[in-house]
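Notebook entry, structure prediction.
Reason for the run: the old model in the group folder had no record of what sequence produced it. Starting over properly, with the input documented here first.
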Amino acid sequence: MVQYNLIVASARVETDIQLPLPPQRGDIISISTGVSTPHYLVHRVEFFANSDIVNLHVQRFPDQLSAKLAIEGFRNTRNYLGNE
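New structure, fully documented this time:
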């Protein structure tokens, strides 16, 4: 069993998280179901040799709507944050 730790701004905020699939850079994850729960954008996946611990360096959003408006490609067809 792989143990996932969420790292936000170099601080561990959640530990021992179970996910159905291993996340990759750019994935959006949520610890619980629901649109009003925190959502996280994965910036980096950090593996350790000979260990079952994986650190996920993430950016936190307070809810799904905030993530949707800020993250290009996450149900965002309005190009809210365009490439400038």
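Summary: Strands lie at 3-8, 11-17, 28-30, 39-47, 53-61.
The old model has been moved to the deprecated folder.
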